[in-house]
Amino acid sequence: MKTSTAKRVVLYRFDRQSLEGIVNPASYLLEAGVELLSLDGAISAVPYADLKALCFVAESGDPRLFTEHNLFERRPRVPGLWTRFTFLDGDQLDGILPHNLLEWPAQGYMITPPHPTPLRQRVFVPRPALKRTELHGVVGVSAMSRAPRKSEIPGQLGMFD
After folding, report:
1. Are 13 and 52 spatial neighbours (Cβ–Cβ below 8 Å)?
2. How many angstroms separate the CA atoms of 86 and 35, rounded?
3. How much is the CA Rg of the chain, to the nearest whole Å?
4. Contacts of 14 (CB under 8 A, 6+ apart)
5. Does 60 score more than 70 pLDDT?
């Protein structure tokens, strides 16, 4: 029996009530917007211009993405790029982006928010919803950019590592 790939989300819109629904992580980003299956069973494509953020959740409930713990209090320890997003309505949200730029969708950014919980695991932020993006720091070092260890250098004895 196959497992379900559908993910529960809370879709935030500008100046409107948020929507709760389900997306297919492999195909929810369309050219015109985000494909959302509402809890009533209606499929809709929400345009990127109307979308503020899409919060992936494991449980039903309000993730309070923009009201509680939306900024890091100190430097995060999760490896990645510590970024602050300022939205068109003035709200701000911090997040960790992956080091690998190829993992960033063309339509926006997939981030890990501050204090991830089952109510807010990952967040998709569309590019049209942003006024400004700031890089606050690089956390951790990717395996590709670190210097080789002595034991990895050919011909080097490993007795003093």
Report:
1. yes
2. 24
3. 19
4. 50, 52, 88, 89, 129
5. yes
What are the Cα distances from residue 11, in Å, to 7, 82, 135?
12, 23, 25
User: What's phi and psi for 151, nearest 5 deg?
Assistant: -70, -15
How is residue 58 written in tokens? 């494991």
What does the pLDDT look like over 99-138, one tens digit per residue?
Answer: 888 888 889 999 999 988 888 889 999 999 999 999 999 8
Structure tokens at 15: 């100046």
Spatial CB neighbours of 121, under 8 Å, sequence gap ≥ 6: 56, 57, 58, 112
Residues with Cβ within 8 Å of 81's Cβ and at least 6 positions away in sequence, in order, are 96, 97, 98, 99, 135, 137, 138, 139
* Per-residue pLDDT reduced to its tens digit, 9-25: 999 999 888 889 999 98
Chain center to CA of 25: 12
Sole residue written with tokens 């320890």: 77
Q: Which of 125, 66, 55 is nearest to 91 (CA)?
A: 66
Tokens of 143: 């395996």
Q: Which residue has the tokens 């068109």?
A: 88
